């Protein structure tokens, strides 16, 4: 077991990527507004992440290609090929820009507690800071400190979830009796969108190639990668469940509508008392800054792979992609009126765009010419099919509801 834990890597990156301000905010809002009713959606999200990330990791290990590169060689018909690339690039660009808006806003509302500037001003300051860090390469120096703070905040949420003594009956009911309370569709979609993050599928396909080089036997690399993915994602899911649980314990049934970081911090008062708001602000700021740096980079890797560009940090095309994602996300965040609502909307947008990436991954994972004997088997296709169908149905329903086609 100790040897397996030492081999953790890409899976932890994925888990760390979805434990950002979007997850903290969305899970808090879900707990406050619906109690434990949506815990089943979180459980399904974790299952979906494991299924999709395993396919992505297997693709990277066996083909030694990223998801973007694999997509360019999947379709022979030039129209289908160009259409697939455009769809993927648009999904990654739009999804990451929305995700970035949530990241920047998360850091901004944490700084708002200082009482110096408005959230919109802090949003611009955070965006400019993230841009400067990416342009200089200095983000690598501060990233470890920020990640450590996020991990510390996660541990505090886990401990608090135990201290508050959740209603076990309501929790089990929410886990095993699927239900979407009236008016909670946006929150439901956001909870899935903040957990099943499309750009993580591109991130893992590339990162496993660095973790397990070609000289490692394929069966050994696959076994270690599957443990890495499953263990890390379940751990991330437990942290998200802890945030939802503390939100339900603190706010459910009180009629409280969360609109600030100070309100969310009240979840931690059973453990930290008056220090909760300061601790929470630091943790949320760290989560926001970390995600504000990594999300544009992941989007640039995904887009460059899909378009056949060189994946080089010094390439002007690569820099143009991450700069565009960061700038659009920051502008979108600065124009938002209610920061918490913006974060939840950004995660919901991610959930709507997820089916596009999931469908293409499913197609690639069934390519015999690319994966040979390691392509999807019957069980993988059944599990993947369930995830893709559910994600597609949810995305279509959310779009139709937004346009008033369905009630």
Folded structure, characterized:
The protein has 407 residues and is mostly helical. It has one domain (2-402): Amino acid/polyamine transporter I, CATH 1.20.1740.10. The chain has 19 helices and no strands. Helix 3 packs across helix 12 and helix 7 crosses helix 15.
Give the topology, please:
Blueprint: H1 2-6, H2 10-18, H3 21-34, H4 39-63, H5 67-72, H6 78-112, H7 119-136, H8 139-163, H9 168-176, H10 185-193, H11 198-211, H12 218-251, H13 261-265, H14 269-272, H15 276-307, H16 316-335, H17 339-364, H18 368-371, H19 378-402
Helix pairs in contact: 2-11, 2-12, 3-10, 3-12, 3-17, 4-9, 4-11, 4-12, 4-17, 4-19, 6-7, 6-15, 6-16, 6-17, 7-15, 7-16, 8-12, 8-15, 10-17, 11-15, 15-16, 17-19
Helix-strand string: HHHHHHHHHHHHHHHHHHH
Shape, principal axes of CA atoms: globular
Beta-strand content bin: under 5%
CATH topology category name: Amino acid/polyamine transporter I
Uncertain regions: pLDDT < 50 for 5+ in a row? Answer: none
Task: Kindly summarize this structure in a few lines.
Helix content is 78%, strand content 0%. It is an all-alpha fold and 407 residues long.
Keywords:
Amino acid/polyamine transporter I, 19 helices, single chain, mainly alpha, globular, 407 residues
